[in-house]
């Protein structure tokens, strides 16, 4: 029997396991079944809260997409992580140091109940994203379907492409999203964001997530869109990002600085699972 908690960050939903106090060893098949919305609990990602590997961290954080793939970053999940460890009494500190495969995240509980995550320093070199491109640029192109798509790209600890759109409501998220997610330009696939600029401090965004499909919100995707928009000279910090599930607030002071993401995290229910 495994105890789990169902949580969400703006509708990007998670099954969260305390892997400090119970052994959690799930195969990719079991992960896929858990995430299935008809035959399982249903979620976009599965999150594991583990004991730290580094002595100066509070926890280690593992993330699995709905398709069973393990990944290195999940921003909405990080806010849920902070709420989970507080609600479970695993860590009552206001600042929590969490290591992932992509590096360290700092999670901060704010007095207003929201959580701010230091998502680390974005990386733009094509090899770091990874993206097959001759040289770094603020605009890349890829042919998919019958069109050439123009995008910006960044690693937020996971790979993101950000495409401009005039109207996010009619953007081809469910057709171009999967084509670019597994495009040959992205050797590790990518999360594909469609960004509509409202003004220099405000965008609308939909994200087709690698390994999970379109979600109601993507935290790392919101950071990627803000950072790409700033790099392209379209946006200025801070940036409000309206996603289908609600709004996130992103701050970034430019190259070499970490990205700060603020938003809510919600617990939905608890359960036990027999495998
Ligand atoms: N929903 C997440 C991102 C989860 C991982 C992503 N699908 C990937 O494969 O990189 C977020 O809030 O950042």
From TrEMBL:
The active site is at residues 74, 218. It is found in: Cytoplasm. GO terms for molecular function: diaminopimelate epimerase activity. Its main location: cytoplasm. Pathway: Amino-acid biosynthesis; L-lysine biosynthesis via DAP pathway; DL-2,6-diaminopimelate from LL-2,6-diaminopimelate: step 1/1. It holds the Pfam family DAP_epimerase. Keywords: Amino-acid biosynthesis, Cytoplasm, Isomerase, Lysine biosynthesis. It catalyses: (2S,6S)-2,6-diaminopimelate = meso-2,6-diaminopimelate. One of its GO terms (cellular component) is cytosol. One of its GO terms (biological process) is lysine biosynthetic process via diaminopimelate. Its EC number is 5.1.1.7. Catalyzes the stereoinversion of LL-2,6-diaminopimelate (L,L-DAP) to meso-diaminopimelate (meso-DAP), a precursor of L-lysine and an essential component of the bacterial peptidoglycan. This is Diaminopimelate epimerase. It comes from Methylogaea oryzae. The gene is dapF.
């Amino acid at each position: 029997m495994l105890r789990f908690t169902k949580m969400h960050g703006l509708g990007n939903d998670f099954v969260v396991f305390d892997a400090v106090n119970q052994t959690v060893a799930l195969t990719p098949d079991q992960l896929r079944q858990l995430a299935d919305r008809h035959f399982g609990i249903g979620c976009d990602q599965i999150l594991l809260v583990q004991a730290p590997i580094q002595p100066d961290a509070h926890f280690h954080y593992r993330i699995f997409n709905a398709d069973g793939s393990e990944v290195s970053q999940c921003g909405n999940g990080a806010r849920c992580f902070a709420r989970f460890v507080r609600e479970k009494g695993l860590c009552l500190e206001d600042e929590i140091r969490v290591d992932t495969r992509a590096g360290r995240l700092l999670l901060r509980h704010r007095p207003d109940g929201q959580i701010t995550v230091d998502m680390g320093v974005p990386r733009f070199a094509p090899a770091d994203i990874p993206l097959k491109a001759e040289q770094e640029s603020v605009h890349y192109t890829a042919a998919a379907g019958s069109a050439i798509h123009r995008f910006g790209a960044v690693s937020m600890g996971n790979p993101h492409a950000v495409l401009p759109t005039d109207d996010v409501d009619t953007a081809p998220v469910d057709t171009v999203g999967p084509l670019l997610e597994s495009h040959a330009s992205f050797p590790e696939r990518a999360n594909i964001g469609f960004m509509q600029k409202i003004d220099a401090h405000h965008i609308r965004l939909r994200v087709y997530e690698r390994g999970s499909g379109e979600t109601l919100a993507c935290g790392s995707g919101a950071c990627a869109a803000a950072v790409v928009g700033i790099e392209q000279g379209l946006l200025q910090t801070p940036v409000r990002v309206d996603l289908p599930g609600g709004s996130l607030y992103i701050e970034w002071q430019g190259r070499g600085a970490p990205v700060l993401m603020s938003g809510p995290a919600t617990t939905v229910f608890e359960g036990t699972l027999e495998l």
